[in-house]
Amino acid sequence: MNTTIDSLLSRRSVRSFTEEQIKDEDLNNILQAAILAPNGKNQEPWHFTALQDAQKLRKLDELVVGKGNSFFYYAPTLILVSIQVGNAYEKEDTACALTNMMQAAHALGLGSVWCNRINANHEIDTNLGEFGIPDGYRVTGTLAVGYVKGDYPARRIPKPGTISIVRS
Ligand SMILES: Cc1cc2nc3c(=O)[nH]c(=O)nc-3n(C[C@H](O)[C@H](O)[C@H](O)COP(=O)(O)O)c2cc1C
Description:
Blueprint: H1 3-10, H2 24-35, E1 46-51, H3 54-65, E2 77-84, H4 90-107, E3 111-115, H5 117-120, E4 137-146
The structure holds flavin mononucleotide.
Flavin mononucleotide is lined by residues 12-13, 15, 113-117, 153, 156.
């Protein structure tokens, strides 16, 4: 099978990571995949913040789920997607960027999972300057990335009946 297609079809969400930090080159490729993702009217209204400071990661976790838990599965890298407040394509652009990053991470042999919680909490999603989010931007999604601990999840069996092909 074509390697790109194989990679697209085998990506899974990974929720268990080793402590080892990902390589700078891999992070850079994942971020390139993000900034080159399709986006509405090519406005590129986004900013990507790669958080690799363990202390800050735990502090963010504490804000989101309280002390002693990790909403980000203790991944060594968390990429926060933020979008200029008020942009009409906020959700669509976020999804395109996150999907590109997940696929890039998988192609590089890394695991990742979209962690949504900050986006649902409007009290904190625009107040994250200390975590590298620019003023006027709102965090709309996050991606935990790292090396997979244990086995990579098996290919997902999709729900049947979700495709129609209409031909003449
Ligand atoms: C919009 C969105 C939000 C998600 N939020 C979370 C989340 O907060 N935590 C989590 O563990 N997984 C989250 N996921 C991952 C989904 O649970 C996962 O994609 C789905 O179960 C299908 O599994 P797969 O990615 O392994 O194919 C999210 C995915 C999407 C697209």
